[in-house]
Every structure is written in structure tokens, then in C-alpha cells.
């Protein structure tokens, strides 16, 4: 009897300790979901920095410098694709595996990842974990709570959304791998190498990262439209957003006339407009540029223009030297990278729904309408205020980083602005500036990637309380605007 009792006490004590730990995590995540997510994000960056600093992670068997290891870790977790070293030759198999895992974790999203970790710890998806997941699926909840019945993803659907995140990533990447593998075999690549590169490319496309395992980049496949088309498909699916994928899969499971939410409609329509508009502009602006599309026939120019437009969404792959684009094309690319992809997607930027809301507000003002409307729905004023805040904070981040990098590097404004926006929008396209920056500039670019990935709304919510009650109002007075 005594022996039996003695063996039970440690189990009870361990169980009690784990229970208290779970309750502490739940309490902290419930009080400040955004801070909890940012802390998890920083912990992941620290962990992957240490792993990439190890000699075993380098192809030469030597330790990688802290600045390069940190930048690569942030770039992987932020699914950006920028690098300060040659990704294909610098890292060993272990290092590439670490980067691959970092990209997959980063693609899940900061708040969604925090939700999953909270689920593992608490063994159930409670209200607080659901709030965390909703924060990633609909960042406006970090600003205004969960009130309202017209939200993009309702509270009861979060469990399904989390399952969609995991399953869709697995299924889409597997499908892309199946499409890429035979094409690589036909190009003469050995089966084992072709399999590994197919898995790697599929992950880098869907996560919108853009790292290439080949030292030549996409040069061997620059005219392979099957290969490039599969990459475009992966980038588009990754950038459209998990809420949209969730809505589509739900419509497939329940045949009939689907009722798309306003978020889904805005995201799909705006994404297609930006994709097509970007392709048309690149076709026109680069038509006679011999360093890019000038020597191609009309059909090749059209395809390559569409490919470049797709990659600006956050894809990061390139078949042409980006620094050889005309100044007008670089400005268009800056704009597209700053906008990015859909909310709760693997893409970065201010998101297409944000820019859509701002344009709808401008049209409503021009027409003299009191409310902002789209697809038979009225958009609340607080969403408009949030959209304005996201753009202003994003522009401020880009402006400050650009000024600092200009001072550090002494490079030209167009090159610095391009790479800074690429970092903020987690695009990965580069003029070559990032790889030549000193350590101080590398740290600034890493911070820019961090801000771009976690989102300005999340970062603001992490630094301040979400609600502040004000029991009085000031007299109204209208300043002159415009």
C-alpha cells in the first residue's frame, strides 16, 4: 500500500505542474493574444538563428555569422525569400532542412501558430485559442473585438479554419510536387534530386518564399512554361488566403449555390484585377527593354509579364534580372509588393482587402454616398479606419527603413526603396542590394521583414490594450482637408 501511494504522488505532482503551466499560458494568451503571438514569433526566430549558426548547418562546416544566421532565420520564418548568402551553396543539407521547416512554420501565420500551440498545451480549442485564430483570419478583431455577425470567419468556424490551414498546405504542396517531379525528370535531373527539389520548390511556391535550391536560380527553367506555370499556381493559392480556401472547400463539400462573404469576394476580385493589371503594365513597359523582355516574341512577353506580376504578390521567384527593369516597372513592382496578397495568407503586404476598402471609400466619397458599400453589403466605419491605419503604419515603416538604409549603404533611392518594400511585403524580389549590405543594414532589413510579416495591426495591438473606454466626447469641429 505504501509503495503504491509513493508511486502516485509524483504523477499527481507532475500532472498538477503541467496543469498550472497550461492555465498560465491560457491566461496570458487570453489577456493579450497579440503579445503572446509576437513572443512565440520571436522565440522561433531565436531558435532558428541558433540552429543556422551551427557549423553543421553550413556546407563548409564552419559557423555562420550572427547577422547572416539571424537574417536567414527571419527571412524563413517571415516567408520572405531575401537572403544575404547564396542559399543554394552556403547551407548544408541540415541547414536547408532547417530553412524548409522554418518556412512551413512561418506560412501557418503568427497568430494561427499561437492558436495551435495553445491547443496543444490546453488539449482543447477554447474561447481564448479561438480568439487567437480569428486574429490571424480576420485582423480587425484585434482592433474591435468579435462583435458583429458579418465577420469573415465566425467564431464557431475557427476549428474548421485551423484544419483547413493544415490540410490545404499539405494537399496543395503535395499536388505541386506531383506536377513538378516528372518535369524535372524530363529535364535530366536524377530521380532522388528531382524528388527533393520538387518538394522544395513546391513549398517555396505555396509559402510565397521564393528560395531556390539551384545556384542558377530559375535560369534552367526560364523558358519552361509548365514549370513556371506550376510555380505561379502555387504562389497564387498561397497568396489568396486561408479564409478564401476555406470558403471554396466548404462550397465543394456542400454543393449548391455558394454564398460568398464580402471578404472572399473583395479578395478574389481585387487579386485578379491586380494580377491582370500588373501583367498588362509589365508587357507595355518592358516591351522594348533588351535586358528583360525585349528580345522575346509576343507570346513569351505576355507569359513572362504574367509570371512577374504573380511573383510581385509575394512569390519572390524571378526569371529576369530585377535590377534591369525600367524605372517605371520598378515603381509598379513597388506598389504591387506593398499591397501584397490576401489576409491570413502566406503573402505579406498591407493586403488586397485593405486597398479595396480604401478605393471603395474614395468612390463613395466621390459619389457623395454616406456609407461605403460593395456587393450589396455596407462596410463599417471602424474597418475603414483600420484600413487607413494599416496603410499609414506600413508606409511609415517603409519610409523609416528606407531612410536608415540609404544612410548606411549610400545606395540609390530606387534600389533601396525596392528592397525595403520587398522586405516589408515579404516578397523576396531584390535588386541585389540586400546581399551587399553591412551588418547594420542587415539588422534593419530583418526588422522590416518582422514588421511586415506580423502585421501592423498585430504589432499595434501587442503594444497597447485593444479597448479604451472614454466616458466623454469633445465638441466636433471640421478641419479643412484637401
TrEMBL record:
One Pfam family name is TrkH
What's in the keyword line of the UniProt record?
A: Cell membrane, Ion transport, Membrane, Transmembrane, Transmembrane helix, Transport
Any stretches that span the bilayer, and where are they? Answer: 36-54, 66-85, 97-121, 158-181, 225-248, 260-285, 335-363, 383-408, 440-464
Q: How does it sit in the membrane?
A: Multi-pass membrane protein
Where does it localize? Cell membrane
Its primary localisation, in coarse terms, equals membrane
Q: Write the protein's name.
A: Trk-type K+ transport system membrane component
Protein source organism: Subtercola frigoramans
Amino acid at each position: 500500500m505504501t509503495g503504491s501511494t509513493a508511486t502516485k504522488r509524483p504523477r499527481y505532482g507532475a500532472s498538477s505542474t503541467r496543469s498550472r503551466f497550461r492555465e498560465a499560458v491560457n491566461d496570458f494568451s487570453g489577456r493579450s493574444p497579440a503579445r503572446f503571438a509576437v513572443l512565440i514569433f520571436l522565440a522561433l526566430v531565436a531558435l532558428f538563428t541558433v540552429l543556422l549558426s551551427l557549423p553543421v548547418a553550413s556546407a563548409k562546416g564552419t559557423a555562420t555569422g550572427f547577422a547572416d544566421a539571424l537574417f536567414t532565420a527571419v527571412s524563413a520564418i517571415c516567408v520572405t525569400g531575401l537572403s544575404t548568402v547564396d542559399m543554394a551553396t552556403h547551407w548544408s543539407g541540415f541547414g536547408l532542412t532547417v530553412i524548409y521547416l522554418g518556412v512551413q512554420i512561418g506560412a501557418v501565420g503568427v497568430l494561427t501558430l499561437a492558436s495551435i500551440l495553445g491547443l496543444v498545451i490546453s488539449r482543447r480549442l477554447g474561447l481564448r485559442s479561438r480568439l487567437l485564430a480569428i486574429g490571424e483570419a480576420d485582423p480587425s478583431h484585434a482592433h474591435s473585438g468579435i462583435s458583429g455577425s458579418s465577420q469573415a470567419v465566425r467564431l464557431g468556424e475557427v476549428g474548421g479554419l485551423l484544419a483547413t490551414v493544415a490540410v490545404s498546405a499539405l494537399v496543395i504542396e503535395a499536388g505541386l510536387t506531383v506536377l513538378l517531379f516528372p518535369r524535372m525528370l524530363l529535364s535530366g535531373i536524377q530521380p532522388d534530386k528531382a524528388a527533393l527539389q520538387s518538394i522544395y520548390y513546391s513549398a517555396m511556391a505555396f509559402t510565397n518564399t521564393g528560395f531556390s535550391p539551384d545556384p542558377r536560380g530559375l535560369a534552367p527553367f526560364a523558358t519552361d512554361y509548365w514549370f513556371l506555370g506550376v510555380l505561379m499556381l502555387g504562389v497564387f493559392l498561397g497568396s489568396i488566403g486561408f479564409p478564401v480556401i476555406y470558403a471554396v472547400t466548404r462550397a465543394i463539400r456542400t454543393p449548391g449555390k455558394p454564398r460568398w462573404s464580402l471578404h472572399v469576394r473583395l479578395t478574389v476580385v481585387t487579386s485578379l484585377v491586380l494580377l491582370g493589371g500588373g501583367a498588362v503594365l509589365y508587357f507595355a513597359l518592358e516591351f522594348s527593354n533588351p535586358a528583360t523582355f525585349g528580345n522575346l516574341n509576343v507570346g513569351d512577353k505576355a507569359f513572362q509579364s504574367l509570371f512577374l506580376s504573380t511573383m510581385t504578390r509575394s512569390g519572390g521567384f524571378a526569371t529576369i534580372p530585377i535590377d534591369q527593369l525600367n524605372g517605371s516597372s520598378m515603381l509598379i513592382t513597388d506598389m504591387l509588393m506593398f499591397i501584397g496578397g490576401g489576409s491570413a495568407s502566406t503573402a505579406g503586404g498591407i493586403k488586397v482587402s485593405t486597398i479595396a476598402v480604401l478605393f471603395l471609400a474614395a468612390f463613395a466619397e466621390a459619389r457623395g454616398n454616406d456609407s461605403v458599400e460593395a456587393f450589396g453589403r455596407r462596410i463599417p466605419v471602424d474597418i475603414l479606419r483600420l484600413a487607413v491605419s494599416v496603410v499609414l503604419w506600413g508606409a511609415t515603416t517603409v519610409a523609416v527603413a528606407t531612410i536608415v538604409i540609404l544612410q548606411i549603404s549610400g545606395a540609390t533611392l530606387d534600389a533601396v526603396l525596392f528592397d525595403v518594400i520587398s522586405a516589408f511585403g515579404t516578397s523576396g524580389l531584390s535588386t541585389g542590394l540586400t546581399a551587399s549590405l553591412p551588418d547594420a543594414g542587415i539588422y534593419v532589413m530583418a526588422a522590416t521583414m518582422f514588421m511586415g510579416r506580423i502585421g501592423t495591426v498585430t504589432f499595434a495591438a501587442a503594444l497597447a490594450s485593444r479597448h479604451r473606454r472614454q466616458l466623454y466626447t469633445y465638441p466636433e469641429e471640421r478641419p479643412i482637408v484637401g
